[in-house]
Amino acid sequence: MEGKLVVAMVGLPARGKSTMARKLEKAFTMDGVKVKIFNNGKLRRKLTGPETSLPDFFSPSNPQGVALRERFAMMNLEMARGFLQRKGQVAIIDAANVTCRRREAIERFFPETPVLFLECVNSDGEVLEAILHRKASMEEFAHLSLDVALESFRKRIEHYEAAYEPLCNERNQLIVDSFDGKVIQEKLTDSIPHYERLRDVVVTRYVEHLYLVRHGQSWFNLKGQPCPARPSLPQIPDKLPPSRAGLLQSSVPYSQTSNGVPLSPLFSKACPYAPVIGKQNLEQGHGCLRFSRALYGPSVPVLHG
User: Fold this and answer.
1) Mean pLDDT, to the nearest integer, of 99-108?
2) CATH code that applies to domain 5-203
């Protein structure tokens, strides 16, 4: 199909595949390209119960789990093909696709459409740990405690690691460091529609929301002198006024991480901005409210505007 493209995500869980897929979807949509994501995990959660969130469901030695996951994958491929046969231009298959067998099946499924396998990797342990904590807070694990959910997800990753096979004979490949936005490996055999735009999105880091902050008033402000990196504060309020906390609750999304980096330890239960933290939805996943001790020292940051 001329001008059509299938982007098949590849990679272990918690490596940024879905985030990358959403970035591509947003960029293509802004360009007027008809694009849609087909997420195997969402389909599984829609059609099954909590039993498929257990780690053993993802074991390569579990024939029932393998059969169900294969069924969901084929259902999504069917929907993606239907989308492209109508007016769709780019279908994104958001799944692990860690085996050569699965990737070969995807290529066979779209004989007249170029398939680009986009693998996301991330070797930063600190970032990975932050992502795991966010994953463990998903609705899928709502029936489990945080510690049990984390252990369950780590075991799931181990099953995927056992089955993982690197990209090999696929015709079109792009391997990227999803956290640093770097291309690690690139191989193109076919003419790939929208490739320049796709590659630009892959290597571009962006912030969905940006808020400018400054430190609170210091003695240096009062004296009319330039502030050093770690100014002291003349008076620190015991807590933020409830009215300001309510304002921020309605206007500022908050997450414990920003681009996968944990929030500064400046925020604590004793912090005057604790009412803000308490009112924010920690599961929004649109993290952008981040204050750095390296930038502001021990002073309390103040939002303006």
Assistant:
1) 96
2) 3.40.50.300
